[in-house]
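Q: What structure does this chain adopt?
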Amino acid sequence: MSLAPLPASVRQRALDWYGDRGRAWVDALPATVSDLAAAWDLHPAGAPFTGGTTAYVLPLDRADGTPAVLKLDLQDVENRCEPTALRAYDGDGAVRLLEYDPDSGAMLLESARPGTALLARRFPGLNEHDAARERFAIACDLFRRLWRAPVPAVGYPEIPRAVDLLKGWAEYFDEAAGRVPDVAEELALGVRLCDALADADEVGIANRDNHLSNVVSSVREPWLLIDPKPVLAERAFDGGYFLFQQQVHGPVGGTELLHAVADGLGADLERVRAWAMLQAVVHVADAGSAAEREAGTGVLRAIERA
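A:
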Protein backbone atom coordinates (compact mmCIF):
# COMPACT_ATOMS: atom_id res chain seq x y z
CA MET A 1 0.00 0.00 0.00
CA SER A 2 1.29 3.45 -0.87
CA LEU A 3 2.00 5.33 2.36
CA ALA A 4 0.29 8.67 2.91
CA PRO A 5 2.97 11.01 4.27
CA LEU A 6 3.55 11.39 7.98
CA PRO A 7 2.42 14.90 8.99
CA ALA A 8 5.45 17.15 9.25
CA SER A 9 4.58 18.23 12.80
CA VAL A 10 4.43 14.62 14.01
CA ARG A 11 7.71 13.78 12.29
CA GLN A 12 9.45 16.78 13.84
CA ARG A 13 8.22 16.01 17.34
CA ALA A 14 9.33 12.39 16.99
CA LEU A 15 12.82 13.56 16.08
CA ASP A 16 13.01 16.39 18.61
CA TRP A 17 11.61 14.47 21.57
CA TYR A 18 12.99 10.98 21.00
CA GLY A 19 16.20 11.45 18.99
CA ASP A 20 17.52 8.22 17.51
CA ARG A 21 14.51 6.21 18.67
CA GLY A 22 12.19 8.71 16.99
CA ARG A 23 14.19 8.52 13.75
CA ALA A 24 14.08 4.72 13.82
CA TRP A 25 10.29 4.84 14.25
CA VAL A 26 9.89 7.30 11.36
CA ASP A 27 12.17 5.23 9.10
CA ALA A 28 10.34 1.96 9.89
CA LEU A 29 6.86 3.43 9.47
CA PRO A 30 6.33 2.74 5.72
CA ALA A 31 7.17 -0.96 6.02
CA THR A 32 5.15 -1.31 9.22
CA VAL A 33 2.04 0.24 7.66
CA SER A 34 2.36 -1.84 4.49
CA ASP A 35 2.70 -5.06 6.49
CA LEU A 36 -0.31 -4.25 8.67
CA ALA A 37 -2.43 -3.22 5.68
CA ALA A 38 -1.72 -6.55 4.04
CA ALA A 39 -2.32 -8.56 7.21
CA TRP A 40 -5.60 -6.82 8.03
CA ASP A 41 -6.74 -6.31 4.39
CA LEU A 42 -6.95 -2.52 4.58
CA HIS A 43 -7.34 -0.01 1.77
CA PRO A 44 -6.53 3.74 1.63
CA ALA A 45 -9.39 6.12 2.46
CA GLY A 46 -7.81 9.54 2.91
CA ALA A 47 -4.97 11.58 4.31
CA PRO A 48 -3.61 11.09 7.84
CA PHE A 49 -5.30 12.96 10.64
CA THR A 50 -3.45 16.00 11.92
CA GLY A 51 -3.29 17.47 15.38
CA GLY A 52 -1.75 14.51 17.19
CA THR A 53 1.56 14.56 19.03
CA THR A 54 3.60 11.50 18.03
CA ALA A 55 1.11 9.19 16.38
CA TYR A 56 0.44 8.28 12.76
CA VAL A 57 -3.36 8.06 12.43
CA LEU A 58 -4.72 7.04 9.05
CA PRO A 59 -8.30 6.50 7.81
CA LEU A 60 -8.71 3.20 5.96
CA ASP A 61 -11.41 0.87 4.73
CA ARG A 62 -11.63 -2.78 5.73
CA ALA A 63 -12.21 -5.49 3.13
CA ASP A 64 -16.00 -5.19 3.49
CA GLY A 65 -15.90 -1.41 3.04
CA THR A 66 -16.28 -0.58 6.73
CA PRO A 67 -14.33 2.59 7.62
CA ALA A 68 -11.64 2.20 10.25
CA VAL A 69 -8.63 4.06 11.62
CA LEU A 70 -5.07 2.74 11.83
CA LYS A 71 -3.11 4.23 14.71
CA LEU A 72 0.62 3.78 15.31
CA ASP A 73 2.04 5.59 18.31
CA LEU A 74 5.67 6.23 19.04
CA GLN A 75 5.21 4.39 22.28
CA ASP A 76 6.01 5.72 25.73
CA VAL A 77 4.96 4.90 29.27
CA GLU A 78 1.71 6.85 28.93
CA ASN A 79 0.34 5.71 25.56
CA ARG A 80 1.50 2.09 25.39
CA CYS A 81 -1.50 0.87 27.43
CA GLU A 82 -4.16 2.46 25.22
CA PRO A 83 -5.10 -0.91 23.64
CA THR A 84 -5.42 -2.47 27.09
CA ALA A 85 -7.99 0.14 28.10
CA LEU A 86 -9.88 -0.04 24.81
CA ARG A 87 -10.09 -3.81 25.11
CA ALA A 88 -11.60 -3.41 28.59
CA TYR A 89 -14.09 -0.77 27.43
CA ASP A 90 -15.16 -3.01 24.52
CA GLY A 91 -16.90 -0.14 22.75
CA ASP A 92 -18.91 0.95 25.79
CA GLY A 93 -18.35 4.71 25.69
CA ALA A 94 -15.12 4.48 23.71
CA VAL A 95 -14.07 3.64 20.16
CA ARG A 96 -13.83 -0.10 19.57
CA LEU A 97 -10.47 -1.81 19.26
CA LEU A 98 -10.80 -3.95 16.12
CA GLU A 99 -7.24 -5.30 15.81
CA TYR A 100 -4.04 -5.03 17.82
CA ASP A 101 -0.44 -5.79 16.84
CA PRO A 102 1.69 -6.22 19.99
CA ASP A 103 4.99 -6.02 18.09
CA SER A 104 4.44 -2.48 16.79
CA GLY A 105 1.72 -1.41 19.23
CA ALA A 106 -0.48 -0.60 16.22
CA MET A 107 -4.24 -0.53 16.63
CA LEU A 108 -7.06 -0.74 14.14
CA LEU A 109 -9.90 1.32 15.58
CA GLU A 110 -13.54 1.98 14.91
CA SER A 111 -14.02 5.19 12.95
CA ALA A 112 -16.10 7.59 15.04
CA ARG A 113 -18.21 9.64 12.66
CA PRO A 114 -18.65 12.56 12.37
CA GLY A 115 -15.89 12.70 14.97
CA THR A 116 -16.32 16.32 16.05
CA ALA A 117 -14.53 17.06 19.32
CA LEU A 118 -16.71 17.97 22.30
CA LEU A 119 -14.56 21.09 22.69
CA ALA A 120 -16.02 22.33 19.39
CA ARG A 121 -19.65 21.51 20.27
CA ARG A 122 -21.86 24.58 20.10
CA PHE A 123 -25.10 25.10 22.04
CA PRO A 124 -27.26 27.68 20.25
CA GLY A 125 -28.83 30.12 22.65
CA LEU A 126 -26.28 29.57 25.42
CA ASN A 127 -23.47 31.91 26.30
CA GLU A 128 -19.97 30.43 26.46
CA HIS A 129 -20.08 30.01 30.24
CA ASP A 130 -23.29 27.94 30.12
CA ALA A 131 -22.10 26.05 27.03
CA ALA A 132 -18.94 25.10 28.90
CA ARG A 133 -21.05 23.72 31.75
CA GLU A 134 -22.95 21.56 29.26
CA ARG A 135 -19.67 20.21 27.88
CA PHE A 136 -18.47 19.41 31.41
CA ALA A 137 -21.66 17.47 32.11
CA ILE A 138 -21.32 15.40 28.93
CA ALA A 139 -17.64 14.70 29.52
CA CYS A 140 -17.94 13.81 33.19
CA ASP A 141 -20.90 11.52 32.52
CA LEU A 142 -18.75 9.66 30.00
CA PHE A 143 -15.70 9.51 32.28
CA ARG A 144 -17.91 8.19 35.09
CA ARG A 145 -19.22 5.38 32.83
CA LEU A 146 -15.75 4.40 31.67
CA TRP A 147 -14.25 3.91 35.13
CA ARG A 148 -14.38 0.16 35.72
CA ALA A 149 -12.46 -2.83 37.01
CA PRO A 150 -9.66 -4.04 34.72
CA VAL A 151 -10.10 -7.31 32.85
CA PRO A 152 -7.46 -10.03 32.28
CA ALA A 153 -5.45 -8.97 29.23
CA VAL A 154 -2.84 -11.57 28.32
CA GLY A 155 -0.64 -10.20 25.53
CA TYR A 156 -1.50 -6.58 26.31
CA PRO A 157 0.62 -4.04 28.23
CA GLU A 158 0.00 -3.85 31.95
CA ILE A 159 -1.75 -0.67 33.08
CA PRO A 160 0.35 1.34 35.54
CA ARG A 161 -0.86 1.93 39.08
CA ALA A 162 -1.51 5.35 40.56
CA VAL A 163 0.37 4.39 43.73
CA ASP A 164 3.52 3.92 41.66
CA LEU A 165 2.99 7.26 39.89
CA LEU A 166 2.64 8.94 43.27
CA LYS A 167 5.92 7.45 44.48
CA GLY A 168 7.69 8.62 41.31
CA TRP A 169 6.22 12.12 41.52
CA ALA A 170 7.23 12.50 45.18
CA GLU A 171 10.81 11.60 44.30
CA TYR A 172 10.72 13.96 41.33
CA PHE A 173 9.46 16.86 43.45
CA ASP A 174 12.22 16.29 46.01
CA GLU A 175 14.81 16.37 43.23
CA ALA A 176 13.25 19.42 41.57
CA ALA A 177 13.33 21.38 44.84
CA GLY A 178 17.11 21.44 44.62
CA ARG A 179 17.02 22.85 41.09
CA VAL A 180 14.23 25.42 41.48
CA PRO A 181 14.21 26.66 45.09
CA ASP A 182 11.79 29.49 44.22
CA VAL A 183 8.95 26.92 44.18
CA ALA A 184 10.18 24.76 47.07
CA GLU A 185 6.93 25.41 48.97
CA GLU A 186 4.80 24.19 46.07
CA LEU A 187 6.99 21.12 45.55
CA ALA A 188 6.80 20.26 49.25
CA LEU A 189 3.01 20.50 48.97
CA GLY A 190 3.21 18.07 46.05
CA VAL A 191 5.08 15.54 48.21
CA ARG A 192 2.39 15.82 50.90
CA LEU A 193 -0.34 15.34 48.30
CA CYS A 194 1.38 12.21 46.99
CA ASP A 195 1.39 10.78 50.48
CA ALA A 196 -2.22 11.74 51.17
CA LEU A 197 -3.56 10.25 47.92
CA ALA A 198 -1.85 6.86 48.27
CA ASP A 199 -4.68 5.37 50.36
CA ALA A 200 -7.49 4.94 47.78
CA ASP A 201 -10.14 2.43 48.90
CA GLU A 202 -10.98 1.21 45.40
CA VAL A 203 -9.25 1.39 42.04
CA GLY A 204 -10.38 0.93 38.45
CA ILE A 205 -9.38 2.02 34.97
CA ALA A 206 -8.97 5.79 35.14
CA ASN A 207 -7.45 8.10 32.54
CA ARG A 208 -4.58 10.56 32.88
CA ASP A 209 -5.52 12.45 29.68
CA ASN A 210 -9.16 13.43 30.13
CA HIS A 211 -9.98 16.53 28.12
CA LEU A 212 -12.68 17.82 25.78
CA SER A 213 -10.78 17.11 22.55
CA ASN A 214 -10.58 13.39 23.40
CA VAL A 215 -14.37 13.07 23.45
CA VAL A 216 -15.79 12.94 19.91
CA SER A 217 -19.23 12.69 18.34
CA SER A 218 -20.42 9.41 16.89
CA VAL A 219 -23.46 7.78 15.33
CA ARG A 220 -23.22 4.60 17.42
CA GLU A 221 -23.26 6.62 20.65
CA PRO A 222 -23.59 10.38 20.94
CA TRP A 223 -20.05 10.66 22.34
CA LEU A 224 -17.06 8.32 22.45
CA LEU A 225 -13.68 8.54 24.15
CA ILE A 226 -10.53 8.34 22.05
CA ASP A 227 -6.85 8.20 23.02
CA PRO A 228 -7.10 6.94 26.61
CA LYS A 229 -3.95 6.86 28.74
CA PRO A 230 -5.08 4.48 31.47
CA VAL A 231 -4.01 4.29 35.10
CA LEU A 232 -5.36 2.03 37.84
CA ALA A 233 -6.70 4.66 40.20
CA GLU A 234 -9.70 5.88 42.16
CA ARG A 235 -12.58 7.75 40.50
CA ALA A 236 -11.31 11.10 41.73
CA PHE A 237 -8.13 10.64 39.66
CA ASP A 238 -10.22 11.17 36.50
CA GLY A 239 -11.06 14.66 37.69
CA GLY A 240 -7.49 15.76 38.34
CA TYR A 241 -6.17 16.36 34.84
CA PHE A 242 -9.60 17.46 33.56
CA LEU A 243 -10.07 20.00 36.33
CA PHE A 244 -6.51 21.30 35.96
CA GLN A 245 -6.89 21.77 32.20
CA GLN A 246 -10.23 23.52 32.52
CA GLN A 247 -8.91 25.80 35.25
CA VAL A 248 -6.13 26.82 32.85
CA HIS A 249 -8.09 27.12 29.62
CA GLY A 250 -11.82 27.19 30.31
CA PRO A 251 -14.28 30.01 30.91
CA VAL A 252 -15.48 28.30 34.11
CA GLY A 253 -13.17 27.84 37.08
CA GLY A 254 -12.99 27.95 40.85
CA THR A 255 -15.65 26.52 43.11
CA GLU A 256 -18.22 26.07 40.35
CA LEU A 257 -15.85 23.98 38.24
CA LEU A 258 -14.68 21.86 41.18
CA HIS A 259 -18.26 21.01 42.19
CA ALA A 260 -19.30 20.29 38.60
CA VAL A 261 -16.44 17.82 38.10
CA ALA A 262 -16.78 16.07 41.47
CA ASP A 263 -20.56 15.76 41.15
CA GLY A 264 -20.32 14.63 37.53
CA LEU A 265 -17.81 11.90 38.37
CA GLY A 266 -19.57 10.80 41.55
CA ALA A 267 -16.25 11.30 43.35
CA ASP A 268 -15.15 12.82 46.64
CA LEU A 269 -14.75 16.57 46.12
CA GLU A 270 -11.65 16.97 48.27
CA ARG A 271 -9.86 14.10 46.56
CA VAL A 272 -10.72 15.56 43.13
CA ARG A 273 -9.27 18.85 44.36
CA ALA A 274 -6.13 17.10 45.61
CA TRP A 275 -5.54 15.27 42.31
CA ALA A 276 -6.01 18.52 40.39
CA MET A 277 -3.59 20.32 42.69
CA LEU A 278 -1.10 17.52 42.16
CA GLN A 279 -1.36 18.00 38.38
CA ALA A 280 -0.60 21.68 38.92
CA VAL A 281 2.49 20.80 40.96
CA VAL A 282 3.65 18.47 38.16
CA HIS A 283 3.25 21.40 35.78
CA VAL A 284 5.30 23.63 38.10
CA ALA A 285 8.05 21.01 38.39
CA ASP A 286 8.16 20.53 34.61
CA ALA A 287 8.12 24.26 33.80
CA GLY A 288 11.03 25.52 31.76
CA SER A 289 10.94 29.14 32.89
CA ALA A 290 10.14 31.30 35.89
CA ALA A 291 7.07 32.68 34.07
CA GLU A 292 5.72 29.16 33.49
CA ARG A 293 6.33 28.24 37.11
CA GLU A 294 4.53 31.39 38.25
CA ALA A 295 1.56 30.59 36.02
CA GLY A 296 1.41 27.02 37.31
CA THR A 297 1.60 28.24 40.91
CA GLY A 298 -1.32 30.58 40.22
CA VAL A 299 -3.43 27.69 38.95
CA LEU A 300 -2.43 25.58 41.96
CA ARG A 301 -3.55 28.26 44.39
CA ALA A 302 -6.79 28.86 42.51
CA ILE A 303 -7.68 25.16 42.80
CA GLU A 304 -6.65 25.15 46.46
CA ARG A 305 -8.97 28.11 47.20
CA ALA A 306 -11.94 26.79 45.17
